């Protein structure tokens, strides 16, 4: 591996063949051929990236063993991580607010924290480490409190709460 190569891990919910995770991977990969992108996906996912500098690795952000295996893979193959994009998350609808919050909190902020903490030693080996968390305006307390905001009426209490938590978590890492 050349010193100029940048190793990027993007956590992806289920598929590397569509969605924000793949769009992010393609955007970063297009910046330079020296960027090597790894899409961390669940074992039951299908990977269809079709680009030579984008690959996949098994990673379930809710499973400590899966996270450990992904960390070992990156450490053994690259020895460092330059960019971590915490993108994986869940937003499905559950009717019970407690179940809704439990699922979203366990995946969105806690999953991202598990991955970030496990990969921090590899990020620290980079000369220019970058840590990113994908959040949304739905997690904004100011937007939710503004009756004129277009997304005020969207009912997504669990998702909003988990993304607001993720936003604060990101601030704590800076």
TrEMBL record:
A Gene Ontology cellular component where this protein is annotated is: cytoplasm
- Gene Ontology annotations of biological process type: secondary metabolic process
A Pfam match is: adh_short
GO terms (molecular function) for this protein are: oxidoreductase activity
Recorded family membership: Belongs to the short-chain dehydrogenases/reductases (SDR) family.
Protein's name according to its UniProt entry: Uncharacterized protein
Identify the species of origin.
Monilinia laxa
């Amino acid at each position: 591996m050349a010193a100029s190569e940048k190793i990027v891990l993007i956590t992806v919910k289920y598929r590397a063949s569509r969605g924000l995770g793949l769009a992010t991977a393609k955007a970063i990969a297009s910046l330079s051929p020296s960027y090597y992108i790894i899409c961390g996906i669940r074992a039951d996912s299908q990977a269809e990236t079709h680009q030579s500098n984008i690959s996949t690795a098994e990673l379930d952000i809710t499973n400590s063993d899966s996270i450990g295996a992904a960390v070992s893979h990156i450490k053994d193959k690259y020895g460092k991580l330059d960019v971590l994009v915490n993108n994986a998350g869940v937003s499905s609808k559950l009717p019970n607010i407690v179940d809704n919050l439990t699922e979203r909190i366990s995946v969105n902020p806690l999953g991202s924290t598990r991955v970030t903490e496990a990969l921090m030693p590899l990020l620290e080996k980079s000369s220019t480490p970058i840590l990113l968390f994908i959040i949304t305006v739905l997690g904004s307390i100011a937007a939710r409190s503004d009756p004129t905001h277009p997304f005020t009426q969207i009912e997504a209490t669990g998702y909003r709460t988990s993304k607001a938590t993720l936003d604060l978590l990101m601030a704590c890492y800076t």
